[in-house]
């Protein structure tokens, strides 16, 4: 491990302290505290409007919190992003899919930070893109327009961009929304392999039934983190009823 890598390892992958974010009159996040250790998969669970996407945008540095602070491997989000440490898979409806780029171009965007100002890809960049496409099972679709992919394939394209970039922390906003079971299984396989390679993953999801299978820990969000621990500790029948109006343990049908 390089000295820089060892330095980054001393800090939690994600540290959120007392974060507050508002949109005009709407208080989206209010006193969010959350620390996620490196190499963990943390499920971010909460009802619609509970602040999941806002929290992701705050951790990426797209939103600057009115209160509190965020550190990614001990760095501010801006510094972490400059070093390419953060991979972000946005919620689908927040992306303009008409944008005319090929899958390979989207993944190559992850290499921009490694290129000079000319942004001319070198052999190493092309190799990194090919490797990321292979790891996300997208090699055959490299030349397809991003807008012509299925929802599950698009999410994998964003994961591939993060891999090509060399990101260490991946924030995935609803990666399973609108994807079929087969695509979901592929995404889970890709995410597991990333976790095994030492990456940290934060995954927001409504698929509560899939949480224990994928996640080492769960944070339940309701403008702030109301519970954080193992899936069994957090997803109690009482909390599920309070948060989602679900009776009993999560089962596939209610996810
Ligand atoms: N750009 C915005 N302008 C104004 N209000 C916003 C904006 N984005 C989000 N909000 C509000 O902030 C709150 C949190 O929204 P956010 O999108 O973070 O929730 P979420 O947990 O991701 O929801 P979902 O499960 O539906 O994706 C909601 O009340 C939402 O209406
Ligand atoms: Mg959201």
What labels describe this entry?
Rossmann fold, six-stranded mixed β-sheet, binds adenosine-5'-triphosphate, globular, 10 helices, binds magnesium ion, alpha/beta, three-stranded antiparallel β-sheet, 255 residues, 9 strands
Task: Explain what you see.
Keywords: ATP-binding, Nucleotide-binding, Transport. Belongs to the ABC transporter superfamily. It holds the Pfam family ABC_tran. One of its GO terms (molecular function) is ATP hydrolysis activity. By secondary structure, this protein is an alpha/beta fold. Helix 4 packs parallel to helix 6 and helix 5 crosses helix 6. The chain binds adenosine-5'-triphosphate and magnesium ion. The site of magnesium ion (MG) has 4 residues, from helix 2.
Helix content: 25-40%
Looking at this structure, what is the CATH superfamily of the largest domain? P-loop containing nucleotide triphosphate hydrolases
Q: Examine the coordinates and then state which fold CATH places here, giving the name of the CATH topology of the largest domain.
A: Rossmann fold
CA radius of gyration is 18 Å
CATH arch. level architecture of the largest domain: 3-Layer(aba) Sandwich
Strand content: 15-25%
User: What's the count of strands?
Assistant: 9
Number of separate helices = 10
The string of secondary-structure elements, in order, is HEEEHEHEHHHEHEHEEHH
Poorly predicted runs are 251-255
InterPro entries: AAA+_ATPase, ABC_transporter-like_ATP-bd, ABC_transporter-like_CS, Metal_Ion_Import_ABC, P-loop_NTPase
Family: Belongs to the ABC transporter superfamily.
Protein name: Manganese transport system ATP-binding protein
Domain ABC transporter: 14-248
């Amino acid at each position: 491990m390089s000295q820089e890598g060892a330095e980054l390892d001393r800090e939690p992958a994600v540290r959120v302290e007392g974060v507050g974010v508002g949109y005009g009159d709407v208080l989206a996040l209010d006193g969010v505290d959350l620390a996620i250790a490196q190499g963990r998969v943390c499920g971010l669970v909460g009802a619609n409007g509970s602040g999941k996407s806002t929290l992701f945008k705050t951790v990426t540095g797209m939103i600057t919190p009115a209160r509190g602070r965020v550190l990614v491997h001990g760095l501010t989000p801006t510094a972490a992003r400059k070093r390419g440490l953060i991979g972000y898979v946005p919620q689908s409806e927040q992306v303009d899919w008409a944008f005319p780029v090929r899958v390979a171009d989207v993944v190559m965007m992850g290499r921009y930070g490694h290129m000079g100002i000319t942004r001319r890809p070198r052999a190493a960049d092309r190799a990194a893109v090919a490797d990321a496409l292979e790891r996300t099972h997208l090699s055959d679709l490299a030349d397809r327009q991003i807008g012509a992919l299925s929802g599950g394939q698009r999410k994998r394209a964003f994961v591939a961009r993060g891999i090509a970039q060399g990101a260490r922390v991946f924030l995935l906003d609803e990666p399973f929304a609108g994807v079929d079971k087969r695509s979901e299984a592929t995404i889970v396989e890709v995410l597991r392999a990333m976790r095994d390679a030492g990456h940290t993953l934060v995954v927001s999801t409504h698929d509560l039934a899939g949480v224990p299978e994928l996640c080492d820990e769960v944070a339940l969000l309701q403008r702030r983190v109301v519970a954080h621990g193992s899936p069994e500790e957090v997803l109690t029948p009482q909390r599920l009823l309070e948060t989602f109006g679900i009776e009993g343990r999560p089962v596939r049908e209610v996810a």
